[in-house]
């Protein structure tokens, strides 16, 4: 799972721009683009993005953990 790609995808689905997210996070556009490039992200930042986009990105991680557990049984 590449969280940056998932955030970018959710932004596109919501028709939101990098400028919009940068403003919501009080980040520069450059920093938002850096988030898009990340395969992992700080949980505080992910929590803020989840709240801003009204989408639970943590659920994706939970589902991934559950799938890995099920494969190991």
What does this entry look like structurally?
The structure is a single chain. The chain has 73 residues and is mostly helical. It is built from five helices and no strands. The model has no long low-confidence stretch (mean pLDDT 91).
Keywords:
single chain; 73 residues; mainly alpha; elongated
Tally of DSSP helical segments: 5
Major β-sheet profile: none
Instruction: Encode the helix/strand succession as letters.
Output: HHHHH
Taking pLDDT < 50 over at least 5 consecutive residues as the criterion, the unreliable ranges are: none
Which structural class fits the helix and strand makeup?
mainly alpha
Radius of gyration: 13 Å
**Quick one: overall form?**
elongated
Distance between the termini: 22 Å
Mean pLDDT: 91
Q: How many distinct beta strands? A: 0
What fraction, in percent, of the residue positions are helical? over 70%
Strand content: under 5%
